[in-house]
Design brief:
The protein is mainly α and 303 residues long. The protein has 9 helices and 6 strands; from the N terminus they run H-E-E-E-H-H-H-H-H-H-H-E-E-E-H. The protein starts with a helix and ends with a helix. The protein is elongated. A 3-stranded antiparallel sheet has the order 1-2-3, covered by helices on one side. The chain has a 3-stranded antiparallel sheet with strand order 4-5-6. Helix 5 packs across helix 7.
Length: 303
Amino acid sequence: MDSNGNENETEVSSTATCGSERKDPGWKYSRLPNEQDLNTIICIFCDKVTKGGIYRHKQHLVGGHRNAKKCTKCLVHVRQEMEDYMNGKKNQNEQLKMRNEDLYEDFEDIDEEVESRRVAFNITRGGSNRGRGSVKRSREKWPMDHFFTPNGEAVVQNMSGKMTQTTMNDAYKKEARERACSLISRWMYNVVIPFNVVTYPSFQPMIEAIGQYGVGMKGPSIYEVRVTHLKKELELTKDSMKDHEMEWKKNGCSIMSDGWTDRKGRTLVNFLVNCSKGTMFMESINASSMIKMGEKMFELLDK
């Protein structure tokens, strides 16, 4: 090659290391006047500045594109490399588009099957299929639904005491709810859980989250309940205490203690902290082996 060719080869090699962190090969043959601006790129062969990002710069190197002027100094093997890369990406995008179209057709087939079964079920139950075109189809769970489904707490907060009309057959939904409530109640009987737990604010969001998952949900394992999610709840509890702790530092607080004896005869002392934001439990200590003296109580409070 001539002296100009050797010079270009050297420049390509030295610049390749600058773009090595980026996957697109077009960065190897470019310079950035501003590292924070990936839209403005300088060609290392002709020093032409292109606007439009790395894709426009590759069009400049390959040539033949209306939106970019062809680089007259680009090396042959570089031009071929960029052209092969752009054609490969184009083929990948076309194949992905075809797969998405096939997947959409499969979803349409499934949707038609669900609709036909719904109509058949409605007819067998004595219902009518009139006005089918104007009736909204039942809300099926598609893969993308998992990314746009609201959390259980939000759904419960938005629920008014009266259930809204649904598109599924009322008799089917009533039967399905009856079976679910029966299994939940049976589980509570088996593990001897107090009946009033169903009135806890956290109960309905749990039911809603299970319903959002859909069919086939596997319940948490012992390890998940005992370790994984217990740690998460501990972190949430600590986060909820931050507002109280800031209030303690700002306006002060009162430390309270409450002693009592359990059924086993143990003397237990609970320690709580009260401030304008409310009272928070801190710790419970077994004081059975301690002498009930003022000095000992001061020592416990001082901790």
